[in-house]
Design the sequence.
DNA sequence: CCTCGGTTGTGAAATATTTCACAAGTGAAA
DNA sequence: TTTCACTTGTGAAATATTTCACAACCGAGG
């Protein structure tokens, strides 16, 4: 069943999914209108839907709700996922305090930190545990995804603990570059986003 | 001069640049050793360097410092860039309080917010200004890049103000999807990173 | 000097992805 | 019913990107 979609197609479908979420289900969109909203050419959107197996609906635009359901059918985005956060620093605690509101898709169920004091002092609705309990708690709480927000030197061991607990995917905000053949890992690094941005600007006159 | 490199090549060179930064300049790396550090196949690294115009150095590995210089020569990463942050919320102020330490490449020189109280109350080394002054201040302070960390509904006007001030690139953390034909824009959305991650996991058994 | 294990740089082949072009469908209006 | 201005879905063509294979090179150790 799981036909292997091109990575970029997956990425674009995620983007489209996002704008559809914030839209009335009854809204009717043509591929070109949708394209303007997400900065993707209309023919690319149509091709993406085509290779993803979109069945013929009508030749008068897409109903937002139907598209949403179609993408859900592909990726099961409507099933809630249980997420934990490792590292309760500035970034980590922002995930715990401002939980991601995406139609309840992601539920933060645990936080971890090596600093026991921090765990005891900080008050939060999400239960916090010491880092060494990570693998057990992940198993016990049936956690699907992990967010790593620890310093670089602790990133590798954190990933190992998460793997040991049976986690399926990791979003890594630490400066370390993580990767694994068994689980999906995505590295996000703010400075590098800035750097990539500048590399894409053709003729940047430096400010000084 | 600016030969048009494939986007993915640029992205990989940025990643390589990052690991090289945290390394002694004298370290000698083969393409395969480097590849293991960044999770990129060795032949892809060699091809990237080749199309980027790497001139023959030796057939016994790369010296970290030389590679660094080579990538700098391509993208001018050593010239410092002046950056501003729009939206002094949790995320925005984290950029101001914990400035990105990437060899001094990025210097945060201003923060903006519509909430005047916030600007007056918050103390920071970085000067803060009301949002309506944005275009003028950007011009005056010769700001190159902008980070948008405002709510979705304010994102578009913020981008317009930045453009008006003559900014060259924008890193957008708001939930809005921004794009522009004149300037480089990069959208980063945490929930979507998580969603993309789950879409890439082949057979994810949902936790509940 | 010669060999050996390891290395780079790069054309050419193999893939992957995007773009194009168009037949065919839709709904409204006359 | 016929036209009109729109739409989708998709093979095929055009591009882009990755992978491969290998000649040429390096440095160490005879």
Sequence:
């Amino acid at each position: 069943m799981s036909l292997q979609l091109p990575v970029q197609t997956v990425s674009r479908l995620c983007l489209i999914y996002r704008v559809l979420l914030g839209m009335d289900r009854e809204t009717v969109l043509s591929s070109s209108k949708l394209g303007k909203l997400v900065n993707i050419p209309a023919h690319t959107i149509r091709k993406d839907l085509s290779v993803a197996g979109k069945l013929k609906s009508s030749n008068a635009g897409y109903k937002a709700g139907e598209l949403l359901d179609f993408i859900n059918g592909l990726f099961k985005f409507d099933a809630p996922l249980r997420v934990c956060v490792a590292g309760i620093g500035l970034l980590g605690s922002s995930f715990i305090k401002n939980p991601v509101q995406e139609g309840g898709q992601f539920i933060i169920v645990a936080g971890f930190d090596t600093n026991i004091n921090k765990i005891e002092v900080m008050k939060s609705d999400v239960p916090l545990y010491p880092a060494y309990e990570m693998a057990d708690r992940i198993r016990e709480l049936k956690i699907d995804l992990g967010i790593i927000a620890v310093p670089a030197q602790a990133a590798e061991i954190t990933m190992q603990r998460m793997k040991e607990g049976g986690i399926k995917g990791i979003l890594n905000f630490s400066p370390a570059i993580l990767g694994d053949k068994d689980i999906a890992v995505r590295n996000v690094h703010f400075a590098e986003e800035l750097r990539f941005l500048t590399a894409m600007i053709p003729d940047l006159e430096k400010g000084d």
